[in-house]
Amino acid sequence: MLRILQFLYRIRAFLLFVFLEVVAVWMIVSNNSPQGAAFFNSSNAVIGSVLQKQADVVQFFSLADANEALTEENAKIMSELLALQSKPDSMPIALDSALEMNFQFKGARVIANSLRFSQNYLTLNKGSKDGVKPGMGVFNSEGAVGRVKSVSENYSVAFSLLNTSLLVSSKIKSTEVFGSVQWNGADAAEAKLLYVPRHVKTQEGDSVITSGFNAVFPEGILIGIISKVEADKKDPNYLDLTVRLSADFSKLTYVYLVENTRFNELDSLYRQAELTNEY
Amino acid sequence: MNIRTLISFTLLLLLLGLVQIFLLKNLALFGVAFGFLYLLGILILPTSIRTVPLLIIAFLLGFALDVFYETIGMHAAAATALAFVRPLWLKATSPTGGYDEAEVPSLSEIGVGRFVSYAFPLIFLYSLVFFIADQWGTGGFLGVINKSLFSAIFTTLLVILVQLLFFKRRRGI
Lengths: 279, 173
Description:
The complex is a heterodimer of chains A (279) and B (173).
Chain A: H1 2-10, H2 12-32, H3 45-60, H4 63-84, E1 103-113, E2 119-124, E3 137-139, E4 144-151, E5 156-163, E6 167-172, E7 178-182, E8 190-194, E9 207-210, E10 222-231, E11 239-245, E12 254-260, H5 263-272
Antiparallel strand pairs in A: 1-2, 1-12, 2-5, 3-4, 3-12, 4-5, 6-7, 6-9, 7-8, 8-11, 9-10, 10-11
Chain B: H1 3-24, E1 28-29, E2 33-34, H2 39-43, H3 51-69, H4 74-92, H5 107-110, H6 112-134, H7 141-166
Antiparallel strand pairs in B: 1-2
Helix pairs in contact in B: 1-3, 3-4, 4-6, 6-7
């Protein structure tokens, strides 16, 4: 017995090494599973405030660009609003409940972002205090950006679209064929559109938009433009489509968060029907 | 190790951590070369330090960075691997007489050639573990090698430059 203890004591450094590695791997795995609870991340109050200070300084230099983008979007929204305003000779009619708005939007600022790893995350400066919930979609005026992963009181962490574990339900705008957009971990400007069957006629330049099937994004938010059409080498039943992402992830500053207010109802319906929601 | 070197090492680690978080976090040369300057803090701990405290220091340092990088566990795993191999590698590359008790394996103490042959393989190992953990399950082994190699070269250059610029010659630190 003493021999065993002596032996264990002699290799204590190795045992500690193995133990620490196991802890680290466990943390990696639990952090990367989409449903797993996050223990420590940048939504922590102290770390969030440090990152916010850093973002304050860095984003000062891109204020001009951000302003320009906001002005452009303002102009676009104003023209749309003008088209929607009712004429004096018309009368408002209550809409059918099926057509009621069931998405709510919020604004937030990106305070930390990465794009060089395989699993990239964004940190946003809005948290549960501002009504942010896990599962909300994140996009900006250029296109879809990600999905909220976890939330603290003042900050939240979101999967970037540049995260190999995030799938976004999407469709090709011209043909209405749906598939899933997933990043392959290589180029920060390109992603793959998966599960599009071979018989579908598509070409370079077709836009890819969100399908609205997975209750994270409303229908019709731009994701990107198809830049390459090839036959899938691994599975001959599908096409290998490369999508040039419309959002520029290297200079994300202001984003919108969208919440589907009917998410719980949909989710319980899916559960009742024993469907697993794809996202 | 007296109290003065303890304090100066703590300050050094803190400073390197801050530089890493505020400057090097968003930097990747050509999209492949990452700078892990904070490894300098683990590399130039005295040769007399035991493996157990070394492992704990490396793990905590890696974990602290992970929280800011949003890569929970990856830096910690890689830094722990580096810390475990460091004493073995130090023994393998030591001069025939062995190191002095109080010696620090820094650039000014052991010279450029020996320092590169000591630091580069360790940094490469670190980068390899880090990028394998990062790309796990997404394939692309070539990408891992590519990123690791260039990150290791870049980090080694950074580590040498910082020592040349900011460390006094012929002293611990």
